[in-house]
Amino acid sequence: MTSSVDASLQEEDIWFLISPPRAGSTLLAHLLGNHPDIHAPSEPWIMLALQQFGKIRTDHQFGAGHVDEALQQSFNSKRDILLAEFAKLYFSMALPEDKFVFLDKTPRYFWIVDWLYSIFPKARFLILHRNPLDVLASHKTTWGHNLDPNQLVANTSTASLDFLLAHSRIAEFAARHQGSPRVLNVRYEDLVENPNSELQKILSAFDLTKRRHKKPTVGINRTALSVEGFGDKKILETNSIHKGSVGSWRSVLTPQEAGFYSHWFGIAKSKPDAATKSLIEEVKQSLAARQVSDDEVLPLI
Questions:
Q1: Which site in 5, 80, 109, 225 is 20 to 30 Å from 283, CA atoms measured?
Q2: CB 246 within 8 Å of CB 252
Q3: What is the mean pLDDT of residues 162-170?
Q4: Is residue 99 within 8 Å of 38, Cβ to Cβ?
Q5: Of 27, 4, 11, which is closest to residue 234 (Cα–Cα)?
Q6: Exposure letters 21-38 (e unless 16+ CB within 10 A, then b)
Q7: pLDDT in tens, 207-263
Q8: What is the pLDDT of residues 7-22, one digit of tens each?
């Protein structure tokens, strides 16, 4: 690791991997991390902290009013510029000397992806999509999250917001930037079906095939994953990339869960029954009352 800022890190060599939690981002990050030019640490989380920097809670013990007034006068006009420069400094110092690209894979960046896109006008964005029902199944089998639709009206946990809102927010971002050379969409199902092809598509789209002739090894960097604190440790239980989790929702979700979430995500072919439609409206009203926004200090981040 470098002991000082490495000026060779270009903004276009900062990559953000955006996905819902439990969508397979750890797998993709570690596959890309096998490339000799890419550094893919496990979930830096740094940009979520920076996005909240300078936003003072009303109960701040040293006087929220004074702190907020001072920041408004001297900081806010330069805020995003300063935060972007700090992030570049951090990425540069964390980048090993033999690497060129810093890949930041932090699943909850879907909350701030528009802000990231605006403050880094040359950075690249990998958008990983996965069947949202399979994402839910992974929430259930890995973390034991309660997916009972009847509990969602009162449930304000970060996990419930993840699986309720991440899919639509990411899809909307991808649609807004369709055709941008800075944004590349990848499907989890395609990745596990043909990992070599998908990796080469990414490297080619982001001009990395020109750097070195050596191709990345398609496999899981088990040593790095086992020692790092974040990331999906479930992939350590397998020796190869497989399609076993594709369609797992069919055996994991209850009929009520599958029916409700199919309609919530707009992927059901039939119209919702009256009870499901009513519950969907209740959940929407609950979220609206919560006033969930990019600027909210969300729990656990």
A1: 109
A2: no
A3: 93
A4: yes
A5: 27
A6: bbbbbbbbbbbbbbbebb
A7: 887 665 455 555 555 545 555 555 665 655 666 788 889 999 999 999 999 999 999
A8: 568 999 999 999 999 9
What's the pTM value of the predicted model, to 2 decimals? 0.86
Note the residue count of the chain.
301
Q: Is 199 exposed, middle or buried (0-12, 13-18, 19+ CB in 10 A)?
A: buried
User: What pLDDT is stored for residue 169 in this prediction?
Assistant: 94
Residue at 297: amino acid letter: V
Which of 216-225, 262-271, 283-292 is predicted least confidently? 216-225
Residue 1 has pLDDT above 90, yes or no: no
Instruction: Provide Rg for the chain, Cα atoms.
Output: 20
Pairing relation of β-strands 38-39 and 124-129?
Answer: unpaired
pLDDT at 194: 95
Q: Which residue has the tokens 């930041």?
A: 104
